[in-house]
TrEMBL record:
PROSITE patterns named among the record's database cross-references: ABC_TM1F, ABC_TRANSPORTER_1, ABC_TRANSPORTER_2
Organism: Nocardia iowensis
Protein name: ABC transporter ATP-binding protein/permease
Residues in ABC transporter domain copies: 365-598
Membrane-crossing segments per the record: 43-65, 85-110, 185-204, 272-293, 305-324
Family: Belongs to the ABC transporter superfamily. Siderophore-Fe(3+) uptake transporter (SIUT) (TC 3.A.1.21) family.
Length: 615
């Protein structure tokens, strides 16, 4: 089992993006943060104002204590004034605690509501993006958007603004007061702050960001390999590849550990230095040494050193949190950018639920000069013209990469055409509302998706108001009713708890769901391709019931399964090159004949192997 991953980040290959690209990236992140946080900006501004007042109140008690000490050390002191100063300091300290608690509580409540709103908005957004968007991403990526990235915004909303205000206001008020006492000692006190700023900038330089990008990529690779390993455990064990699959997962984990060490190791010394220079003990040492020198040189009176010892010691405490929150801020910025890009994902234009009475033309499907490309510079389909008549089965065949799966996915609007149009009953499918389109077009693909819930829940997705009798009729027609009734709670049995369905059984359940939907147009991706041998005949019978009287387009991978269809369309390199029935195309000497000969040779080989095994 191989794990497909995106290319390594530019830093890992030694090709760092140009400065213009880095600058553009920063601008995009800033814009994303601004737009993502727009709904809470005004409320955060009010919370920040409260935090600013609280930050001032954090300094004022120390200033009052200094004045009380000055009074106590005076030749004649006023005891009442001392008590007033101390009482005022205690009151201001209490107010500071209340204001800080208010600001933090408010920001966290705001964050809780904001995350709920964002998740709802993203969930609603995902209902409007093309279904093909999900085919390009695995479940871990979708989960990352809705859970991890939204959770990463917590720091931006609940902490970042308040911590920044505190880290700005406390030093400014402190330095302003200390400058009024003595500017020379204040300049000396700035030295630890400058050293801290230099160390912090070194820890957040481009090299560190490159190493962080590498670590993030390996972290994502571990997530992918975990999902791949768990999802494919049955296959890898069946073919004796569990060791190989585990090895690939282990290699990804080891690489992530190495990337973490490469990112963190150069930062350890810098982080140690930055932490030490703004600790109260180190700051006190600087103040004492500078104060002794200043007193010895008659620059200041001994009493003037006291404010620096009481007020200046807390100067670095407010800055320390910024250093440790740098990673959370970068992660939140990257998450905001990803969520902003998701919000900009083009949506399927929803038609209006206009009158849907198309009478006898309801099942006529036409592709008119259809072109499509996943990118503007590469067309996958070119000039497709075809008509699917009601009550007929049309098979779509072609070499791998010819565009047959892409063409079939255009009909249920997994993607929108880039040129031409697709109509049902002379009505462009882009004019259908989403609900109306999926009442008109049903689809059954190889990769069956069942939700975690009861069998009844899975079937009722097709028609929420379906009666028990309707559910049973659909299940019987799909050859799955007897299997359901053998379960402990019948149709109320929980999938994954009461029953584990085989591939063929899951496929028949999805066919029952399609029968219940009763859509006149149907797209099938050869449904027996992954069915177990015991189930293949049952699946074929279920499909026979499903396609009866409908307009059916089937993607055929095994040509011997579609020899009896009404018409066969042959795609090659995104172009419709042949069409007709099996007999005419088999003898035409074209692409279909070549594919048929390959199919027959493969069947002969399988038959030969089976005969050898039975000897």
């Amino acid at each position: 089992m191989t794990v497909e991953v995106a290319p390594l980040p530019a830093a890992e290959t030694g090709n760092r993006p140009p400065k213009a690209a880095q600058k553009a990236r920063k601008q995009q992140e800033a814009l994303a943060r601004k737009e993502i946080l727009a709904p809470v900006r005004r409320t955060l501004a009010l919370a920040s104002l409260i935090m600013a007042v609280a930050s001032v109140c954090a300094v004022v008690p120390f200033v009052l204590i200094v004045e009380a000490c000055r009074e106590l050390l005076a030749d004649q002191f006023d005891a009442d004034r001392v008590w007033r100063l101390v009482s005022a300091a205690m009151i201001v300290l209490l107010v500071r605690g209340l204001l800080q608690a208010l600001a933090l509580t408010w920001s966290h409540l705001l964050d809780a509501g904001y995350q709920l709103t964002v998740r709802r908005a993203l969930a609603a957004k995902l209902t409007r993006v093309p279904l093909g968007w999900f085919g390009e991403r695995n479940s871990s990526e979708v989960k990352k958007y809705l859970q991890d990235d939204v959770e990463a915004l917590h720091y931006l909303v609940a902490h970042a603004r308040l911590e920044f205000v505190g880290a700005l206001v406390v030093p400014l008020v402190t330095l302003g007061y200390l400058f009024s006492v003595d500017w020379r000692l204040t300049v000396v006190l700035l030295i630890p702050l400058v050293v801290y700023a230099i160390a912090l900038s070194r820890m957040m330089d481009q090299g560190s960001r490159d190493r962080l990008a590498i670590y993030t990529r390996w972290e994502h690779r571990v997530q992918q390999s975990t999902v791949e390993f768990v999802d494919g455990i049955q296959v890898v064990r069946a073919f004796g590849q569990a060791g190989k699959a585990h090895t690939e997962y282990q290699e990804a984990v080891d690489a992530q550990a190495r990337a973490f060490a490469q990112w963190k190791t150069p930062m350890i010394r810098l982080q140690a230095v930055s932490d030490i220079v703004i600790t109260p003990v180190f700051v006190m040492l600087v103040i004492v040494l500078a104060g002794l020198g200043a007193v010895g040189a008659d620059w200041v009176a001994p009493l003037d050193v006291l404010p620096f010892l009481l007020v200046g010691l807390g100067l670095g405490g407010s800055l320390l949190g910024l250093g440790y929150s740098g990673q959370a801020l970068r992660a939140a910025g990257a998450a905001a950018l990803r969520l902003h890009e998701l919000q900009q994902t083009p949506e399927l234009a929803a038609g209006t639920a206009a009158e849907s009475g198309i009478a006898e033309q309801a099942g006529v499907v036409r592709f008119e000069s259809v072109t499509f490309g996943y990118r503007d510079d590469h067309q996958v389909l070119r000039g497709i013209d075809l008509e699917l008549a009601p009550g007929t089965i049309t098979a779509l065949v072609g070499p791998s990469g010819s565009g047959k799966s892409t063409l079939a996915k255009l009909l249920p609007r997994f993607y929108d055409v880039t040129g031409g149009r697709i109509t049902i009953g002379d009505r462009d499918i882009r004019d259908y509302s989403t609900e109306e389109l999926y009442r008109t077009v049903g689809f059954v693909f190889q990769d069956v998706r069942l939700i975690r819930g009861s069998i009844r829940d899975n079937l009722s997705m097709a028609r929420a108001d379906a009666t028990d009798a309707a559910l049973e009729r659909a299940a019987r027609a799909a050859q799955i009713h007897d299997r359901i009734m053998s379960l402990p709670r019948g149709y109320d049995s929980e999938i994954g708890t009461d029953a584990i369905f085989s591939g063929g059984e899951a496929q028949r359940l999805s066919i029952a769901r399609a029968l219940l939907a009763d859509s006149p147009v149907l797209v099938l991706d050869e449904a027996t391709a992954f069915a177990d041998p015991e189930s293949e005949a049952a699946v074929q019978d279920a499909l026979a019931a499903l396609v009866a009287g409908r307009t059916v387009l089937v993607i055929a991978h095994r040509l011997h399964t579609i020899t009896g269809v009404d018409r066969i369309l042959v795609l090659e390199n995104g172009t419709l090159v042949e069409q007709g029935n099996h007999h005419s195309l088999r003898d035409a000497g074209g692409t279909y004949q070549r594919l048929w000969e390959i199919n027959e040779a493969a069947l002969d080989t399988v038959a030969l192997i089976e005969s050898e095994e039975t000897r």
